[in-house]
Design a protein that fits this description.
alpha/beta, 6-stranded mixed β-sheet, 20 helices
């Protein structure tokens, strides 16, 4: 992504704050003017009231009054500087925080809109880095760097203009070392940009490693791999340390070099100014102004170099952020969706071909029809394509060939939110969010009342353990529901699904991790849950799907057998072999 495109996109976030930015720039001009005027006040006071000649020609009282007026003027300038600096800082911080808030909201909202395929191939830690670290890197740019950049440019030009106006010869002496500073700045920019990019990449790698390994901590401890994982972490941490140290060393060398150049420049000004003073070309006050200006001249140049480096760092972060924002959803809703106010639940697959990668087809020419209210189960070996069918019904992925229809309408013509809200899916691995039981059942839907939550929990037998908890429905839920058993988490997922009252129920190995007692509770609940709903089940344990209206046997991406439990046993095919294997 080109830098000019990044700059254009970054500045687009400032459009709602145009008036505030313009006000800040005006304040910067005022601040710069006041800072340039400060040494002139003292220089004029020296020439008018303190210089030996002026002291001799005027009365002591008049000189004292002049010095007092100069002091009062200097104090007024300081007060104005304080007020302007405070106002400018407040405005820019407010603008910067507003922009960062908007950007963070936009990124997270966009991430939520992306298709499941994106999350299959993108590490969680990488996305966390984009929303947190990279956005914070832009915060400094919006809240500080841009205004300081403008201020330093104006200050350098202002200092140069005033010095040339005061004395051209002295100004030229002051600018002798500017080429050396420019050369050092260019070298610094190149080195700092490389160092920063390396550091950002190492931070992303470390965050990705942490996210993955903390999530998989149980597995690490089961296989006693703590030592090996610590060694991996130590290596990645050391790489980040070396990258950060390199960045620090670049600054550690550049700043003293610029300081040394500024001291040399000051020496040149004092040497040339001393001769000019003895020759009567300039006054003591003018020399004082030049000394003050040359002390201030190299500071904004040094800051400019560092700010350009920070700006490059912000561009690097912006590029990573915009890469995520430019990611297009693989599954996109239609511009003018077909309206289905009441989805009945008739599902039809017509010659469906589907692959996650190119032409490595998981489903091959699959066709079937499920009538409203019918209970259908899919069985087969791992990798046969059972779960893929469930994902396709909710359009989490798009098929390559064929059609999937709900109530006779191609799902690609339906609004995605409408489609998914009609499907209640219970998975084998239940995800619970940090909060409480009630919020995990409701999932932010204020239309679901507390009574409905309690009724749904009662129907699926979740109320049996919830009411025994100290906090009841307000009981705290830790990350991923770690304080609840697998059976309890599954019951909560059932309550969540029932509370949303879907037309189509999808059960993906919903009873795989459940103990015998809890399974009995769920089997009781399933009778209520499936009543009047189209139900699709995937199960390895054939005992859980024997009473289905229709069982389809998947093998290598195709439907090889279909029928009731008894019909399939009589066919003496794949299903019977699976059944006998489980009995054995």
């Amino acid at each position: 992504m080109k830098n000019n495109n990044i700059v254009r996109r970054l500045f687009s976030y400032l459009r709602p704050y145009r008036a505030g930015v313009a006000g800040c720039l005006l304040l910067v001009l005022a601040i710069t003017g006041l800072e340039l005027y400060r040494p002139i006040i003292i220089g004029d006071a020296i020439d008018l009231f303190i210089n030996e000649d002026t002291v001799a020609s005027g009365s002591a009282a008049a000189n004292f009054q002049g010095i007092l007026r100069a002091g009062m003027l200097y104090l007024a300038v300081l007060i104005l500087l304080f007020v302007c600096n405070m106002a400018q800082y407040w405005f820019m911080q407010k603008i910067g925080q507003g922009v960062i808030y908007t950007m963070r909201q936009q990124i997270f909202s966009h991430i939520q809109s992306l298709s499941m395929r994106f999350f299959d191939i993108t590490p969680v830690g990488k996305l966390v880095t984009r929303v947190t670290n990279d956005v914070e890197a832009l915060n400094e740019m919006y809240a500080n760097i841009m205004v300081r950049l403008f201020k330093n440019v104006v200050k350098i030009l202002g200092l140069a203009a005033v010095m040339l106006a005061l004395n051209v010869r002295m100004a030229l002496f002051s600018f002798l070392l500017v080429p050396a500073v420019v050369a050092l700045t260019l070298v610094f920019q190149k080195l700092s940009r490389e160092a920063y990019r390396m550091a950002r990449n190492k931070i992303t790698a470390l965050n990705t490693f942490l996210s993955e390994n903390i999530s998989g901590m149980k597995l690490i401890q089961i296989f006693v791999r703590e030592k090996e994982k610590l060694e991996e972490f130590t290596e990645k941490s050391a790489e980040l340390y070396r990258a950060n140290f390199r960045e620090v060393m670049v600054f550690a060398v550049f700043r003293p070099l610029i300081y040394m150049v500024s001291v040399l420049a000051l020496g040149i000004v004092l040497y040339a100014g001393g001769y000019s003073l003895l020759e009567g070309v300039i006054s003591i006050g003018t020399l004082f102004i030049f000394v003050q200006y040359i002390s201030s001249f190299f500071e904004p140049i040094q800051e400019l170099a560092e700010q350009f480096s920070t700006l490059q760092s912000a561009f690097a972060s912006a590029e990573k952020i915009f890469t995520v924002l430019d990611e297009k959803p693989a599954v996109v809703g239609p511009e003018h969706p077909v309206q289905l106010p009441n989805i009945k639940g008739r599902i039809e697959f017509r010659n469906v071909w589907f692959a996650y990668e190119k032409e490595d087809y998981i489903l091959k020419d699959v066709s079937f029809t499920i009538e409203p209210g019918q209970k259908v189960a899919f069985v087969g070996a791992t990798g046969a394509g059972k779960s893929s069918i469930l994902n396709l019904i909710g359009r989490y992925y798009d098929i390559q060939k064929g059609q999937i229809l709900i109530d006779g309408v191609d799902i690609r013509k339906l609004d995605i939110s409408l489609l998914r809200s009609a499907i209640g899916q219970v998975q084998q691995d239940v995800f619970l969010f940090t909060g409480d039981i009630q919020s995990n059942i409701r999932l932010g839907n204020d239309g679901i009342s507390e009574e409905k939550i309690r009724e749904a929990s009662r129907i699926v037998n979740a109320d049996r353990f919830i009411r025994l908890l100290p906090g009841g429905y307000r009981e705290k839920v830790m990350e991923r529901g770690a304080t609840f058993s697998a059976g309890q988490r599954q019951l909560l997922s059932f309550a969540r699904t029932l509370a949303y009252d879907p037309s189509i129920l999808v059960l993906d190995e919903a009873t795989a991790n459940i103990d015998t007692e809890t399974e009995q509770w769920i089997q009781e609940a399933l009778e209520h849950l499936m009543s009047g709903r189209t139900t699709i089940m995937v199960a390895h344990r054939l005992s859980t799907i024997q009473h289905a209206d229709l069982i389809m046997v998947m093998h290598k991406g195709r439907i090889r057998e279909s029928g009731t439990h008894q019909e399939l046993l009589q066919q003496n095919g794949i299903y019977k072999k699976l059944y006998e294997l489980q009995l054995a």
